[in-house]
């Protein structure tokens, strides 16, 4: 499906999000230092996901009326945003042996989340908000868009031979 002009920048961020999810997944399969993968995931959550989720909630979801906010994809998007917040806390507090399942969930949930938003949530927003509302949202998204999040010094997702 062709993404509307107004939501394009959030879709670019989804592209980055999938890359971050793949990096975490690769780190796990390459048996990278899990505390290093944890720092990466927490960094992504704080500097990239949290501002991105805030834009989705404040610029898109808050423009829906009460009935529209009960749409299945909207409810699930918000549930997943809360799961990410919980997952970040668990990652920060976990002992090293507990990290692997949490990091695996982080990677899987990020992919599932992007798929849900691109496949159901954004199409719903595009159909539901007026063009004027979408343009107002676009201005806020332009202001809050994250250009490039990651310059990680140690790329643990690459194999070292
Ligand atoms: Fe998103
Ligand atoms: Fe989201």
Name the helix and strand elements from N-terminus to C-terminus, one letter apiece: HHHHHH
CATH topology type: Four Helix Bundle (Hemerythrin (Met), subunit A)
Shape: elongated
Question: What is the C-alpha radius of gyration, as a whole number of Å?
Answer: 17 Å
What value does the average pLDDT take?
93
For the biggest sheet, the summary is:
none
Terminal CA distance reads: 41 Å
What small molecules does the structure contain? fe (ii) ion
Report the sheet-strand fraction: under 5%
- What's the CATH first level? Mainly Alpha
User: Roughly what percent helix?
Assistant: over 70%
Structure description:
By secondary structure, the chain is mostly helical. It has a single domain, classed as Four Helix Bundle (Hemerythrin (Met), subunit A), CATH 1.20.120. It contains 6 helices and no strands. It has helices at residues 8-29, 34-60, 66-69, 72-93, 99-128, 131-144. Helix 1 (8-29) runs antiparallel to helix 2 (34-60), helix 1 (8-29) packs antiparallel against helix 5 and helix 2 (34-60) runs parallel beside helix 5 (99-128). The longest helix has 30 residues, at 99-128. The protein is elongated, with a radius of gyration of 17 Å. The N and C termini lie far apart (41 Å).
